[in-house]
Amino acid sequence: MTTRITIVDLAEELGVSRQTISNVLNAPHRVKEATRLRVEKRIAESGYRPNSAARQLRNHKSMNLGMRLPRASDGINGAVLDGFLYSLTEAAQAHGYRLTLFCADTDQQEMNRFEELLSVAELDGFVLTGTDRDDERPAWLAERGVPFVAFGRPWGTEAGSAESAHSWVDVDGSSGVRDATEHFIAQGHRRIGFIGWPEDSAVGDDRRNGWLDAMTSHFPAEEWTALSYLGDDSAKVGSSGAAELLAQGVTALVCASDSLALGASSFLRQSPIPGLASSVIGFDNTPVAAALGLSSVSQPVADVAAEVMRLLLRQFSRTAMEPENSLLRPRLEIRNFQSFNR
Amino acid sequence: MTTRITIVDLAEELGVSRQTISNVLNAPHRVKEATRLRVEKRIAESGYRPNSAARQLRNHKSMNLGMRLPRASDGINGAVLDGFLYSLTEAAQAHGYRLTLFCADTDQQEMNRFEELLSVAELDGFVLTGTDRDDERPAWLAERGVPFVAFGRPWGTEAGSAESAHSWVDVDGSSGVRDATEHFIAQGHRRIGFIGWPEDSAVGDDRRNGWLDAMTSHFPAEEWTALSYLGDDSAKVGSSGAAELLAQGVTALVCASDSLALGASSFLRQSPIPGLASSVIGFDNTPVAAALGLSSVSQPVADVAAEVMRLLLRQFSRTAMEPENSLLRPRLEIRNFQSFNR
DNA sequence: GTGAAAGCGCTAACAC
DNA sequence: GTGTTAGCGCTTTCAC
User: Fold this and answer.
1) pLDDT band at B18 (very low <50, low <70, confident <90, very high)
2) Each residue of B163-208: pLDDT tens digit?
């Protein structure tokens, strides 16, 4: 590194005081235009950059956002967070913020890290992911007045109260699954099955509701209520589910994840009925789905990230305003399954 | 946030000077033990944390590392970087460092970001990923004396020179593919095919060499030299490759990636020969491989991350020492393909 | 509109 | 061993 250029160097070179330089940077309107232009020109030429540590010491603003990096999951999912992370980094960068990552094994540990990062590094805000029922993190942050936005709805407590009124952005999984189901209905399918997660999963229930909604509004209940298969998020469960539901006569399958869809389509491909394997729609539009030509419900992660950033900036600028929420609609990505196998 | 505790508060409370507190933190040996213990006790009780901005302003050390987040790739891969990122964050955290992410579309842009992050945020070092031939980044950093470690070997320039002698950590892809090939050889296979990437890819060539090595040392060349199929990194290419090589009588396939392996195994599953689909080994041990019960060569990302961190710390502590490198051996993860389809 | 003074929290250098 | 002095680079008063 060459020697550091400071505001003083510029001031001396230009024969003005250092405050003038500072003003050009932070309150341009207070500076006479001629002076301002002269200073700005010199700043650009010299490649001067204000030092963030000095600024932070003065302002208690670090221009730094924090996010816990979830442990790489076993499942195929996590690809969503991948894309989200990239978009979030990009969005933060576009607004002059940096993104600091950290690890934690539990929510409690995450809160410990919050405290540390707040006092040590003075992070300006946090992004929460993987919110679930009885999540203590929103309240922890809210109590301390720390700006944050969650990617994921507050799912309330077991008791059903939704005391945590904070800013969040989420993707409407229910609507995505409904779209997928109705896509099949439009194609003439009647016996459409659903493979999803056990009932204690908030996200899983939400997705399942999309299937319930669509089916309820098109067909009499007795025709389809049994056509649902729940299990953990694995290709194996997808395969088992496909086998069982196929025996019940389903002609199409909507799945709560690409892992499940992968297993299901893999099973169906071996079945004698032609074209059946293409009657599977997954969720999250992961790289596997793309690789296999599997249709999937795609989360608009870039939009989510941009929205998260917007809500954070909102909290930074004003004081004491209402939390705001966004429920973004996913997009159905229909692929031609045939194209893959030559 | 409650009001910030500073070193001055502690000094007043304890009736010592602020410098003594600082010494306890930074040069404990200079402080009388009784004083030290008293100070340490108070620090722990009060939850005091030294402010990093103030430290940074003084020391020009930010305790912050930078890494470019590669855009989520289309392929199934990128899962490796996922695991690496997590492990790196963890390793950095364990040593009191934070990890700052940033985006860039090109290497040139990445260097621009280096410059910015260096002058604005005074990052202490960088982690480079995705190194390839004619990579300008190592030289850029080295010229400026910025500590960095690359995940990925320097592949030299087209001319073949390897002027960039910097610290790096990499996984021996060649050895991984050799192990995979020899695994098949040990099982009695003779006609073992390889599906990989075009010849202009450094990583791809390396992996292909593993297959070449193993085959060369076991079988006469005329038997197998034709059993190689190269194309871009997609399941489709894997499928096409499997078709073509199967026609040439291969009984097992080693692939340069899980994407290729996915396509290959998917094709083979439809072939009449039973068990053939389980004679495929991929590379990177991505979640898809796990989901499908596909064998794969697994990169020891946690070890890589720990090693990267070690080499960075080494550069931080001493001055002007030799670069150091590590070539880590991947591990062959053999799975029972059958188990998946019930 | 511009300049001077003060201080954010911490630590290297030096005195005691 | 411990305290004092000075200053990292910047910005917010407050004079001028």
Assistant:
1) confident
2) 458 999 999 999 999 999 999 999 999 999 999 999 988 899 999 9
Cα separation, A327 vs B129, in Å, equals 35
Distance of CA A20 to the CA centre of its chain: 42
Region at A122 (left for phi over 0; alpha for psi -120 to 50; beta for the rest): left
Nearest CB among B90, B120, B269 relative to A49 is that of B120
**CA–CA distances in Å: residue B85 to residues A71, A81, A105, B303:** 10, 13, 15, 12
Q: In Å, how far from its chain's centre is CA A221?
A: 34
Nearest to A35 by CA among A47, A25, A45: A25
- Binned at pLDDT 50, 70 and 90, residue A73 comes out as low
Q: Closest protein residue to D2 using CA and C1' atoms? A: B20
How many whole angstroms separate alpha carbon B68 and alpha carbon B105? 10
What integer pLDDT is reported at residue B71 of this predicted model? 86
- DSSP secondary structure letters along B198-251: -TT-HHHHHHHHHHHHHHHTTS-HHHHTT-EEE--SSHHHHHHHHHHHHHTT-S
pLDDT tens by residue, B289-333: 988 889 999 999 999 999 999 999 999 987 667 899 999 999 999
Which residue has better confidence, A272 or B243?
B243
CA nearest B192: which of B266, B298, B285, B279?
Answer: B279
Q: Is A269 within 8 Å of A52 (Cβ atoms)?
A: no
What residue has token string 């700005």? A40
Distance CA B232, CA B194 (A): 14
Portion 142-201 of A in contact with B at CB < 8 A: 144-146
What pLDDT score was predicted for residue B157?
61
- b (16+ CB within 10 A) / e for A32-62: eeeebebbeebbeeeebbebbbebbbeeeeb
Stretch B132-155: mean pLDDT: 92
Give the Å distances, CA to CA, from B41 to A112, B20, B92, B182. 20, 14, 27, 59
Rg from Cα positions in chain A: 26
Nearest CA in chain B to A235: B291
- For the CA of B225 and the C1' of D16, the distance in angstroms is 87
Side chain identity at A255, as an amino acid letter?
A: C
Using the Cβ of B268 and the Cβ atoms of chain A, whether some distance falls under 8 Å is answered with: no
Strand bridging mode A295-298 / A125-129: unpaired
This prediction's pTM: 0.93
C1’ C13 / CA B53, Å: 21
CB atoms within 10 A of CB B186: 8
Mean pLDDT of A104-122: 95
Q: Does B49 touch chain A (CB under 8 A)?
A: yes
Geometric angle at alpha carbon B78, from B237 and A74, rounded to 5° = 105
Mean pLDDT of A313-318: 88
Which of A328, A326, A299 has the alpha carbon at shortest distance from A310?
Answer: A326
User: What's the CA gap between B212 and B174, in Å, rounded?
Assistant: 9
Cα separation, B271 vs B246, in Å, equals 9
Q: Does at least one atom of strand D sit less than 7 Å from the CB of B26? A: no
Question: Helix or strand or coil: residue B98?
Answer: strand
Question: Would you say residue A160 has pLDDT above 50?
Answer: no
